[in-house]
Amino acid sequence: MTSADYLPILILILIAAPFAGIAILLPSVLGPKNPNRMKQEAIESGMIPFADARRRFPVQYYMVAVLFIIFDIEVIFLFPWAVSLNQLKIFGLIEMGVFLGILLIGYLYVWKKGAFEWE
Amino acid sequence: MPLLFAALALIALVGAAGVLLSRNPVYSALSLLLNFVAFAVMYVMLSAQFLGVVQIIVYAGAIVVLFLFVVMLIGGNLPALGRGRRAYVRAAGVILAALFLLALLFGLARPLPNGLAAVGAPDGGSVQALGLALYVDHIVPFELASILLLTAMLGGIVLARRYQAPPKD
Predict the structure, then answer these.
(1) Secondary structure (DSSP) of chain B
(2) N or C: which terminus of chain B carries fewer CB neighbours within 10 A?
(3) What ipTM describes this predicted complex?
């Protein structure tokens, strides 16, 4: 893979971005507007908002973000491994088994601690 | 290619300016996303494809999510954020920015250190080349990275989880 092979992705972005932009802008220009108080609620026909959404959230949410980042980094290690697995053969498989085995300990610990459960 | 680079540089600059100029911290984080994506395309143009992918997955994905979570935790509605900024804070900002520019120029002026030949090699930044380097030549650091991630996982749990007192009986 050279950089030139990525050209189709760039062309896709160049086509998709204006398409998304038009899809957002055009209805606001052409669509009818009859606002009333009920329609302007944050979630129409949903729960009635009881406070401003931009307030401080419990630290529990941060736990989700931290775990997401850690598993994200794991994925980054898996990506080049998967691409070059043909050359690495069985050695690569064992190697990644050790890597994931160590992380599995952490995963089980986190699970047992109940971090995935909502308090 | 120079035209594409110029367009990307412009997008990156617009994103960076958006980070600094937005009053709403959520808009700042989203502007940062624009900046990161422009840089990812630049990395691919410089044939550092893996870096480009990492830029998208880790920076545009995880880091921006982390920023947004921090905004959530401290409360997104901060009218006091832009006000009451004192003169010495601005002065400190200017001095730090100047120092950073100086460090950047110093780093750019020096020749590349040894050991970067593999990076400079044609296709050295491709995902496959990096995979072979990481999983054959540098196997010990790779396995140690898993222990680093394990530590980070446990640290996150210890810091963010509410302590529950053991039941008394």
Answers:
(1) -HHHHHHHHHHHHHHHHHHHH-SSHHHHHHHHHHHHHHHHHHHHHTT-HHHHHHIIIIIIIIIHHHHHHHHHHH-S--TTSSSS--HHHHHHHHHHHHHHHHHHHHHHHSPPPTT-HHHHSTTTTSHHHHHHIIIIITHHHHHHHHHHHHHHHHHHHHHHSPP-PPPP-
(2) C
(3) 0.71
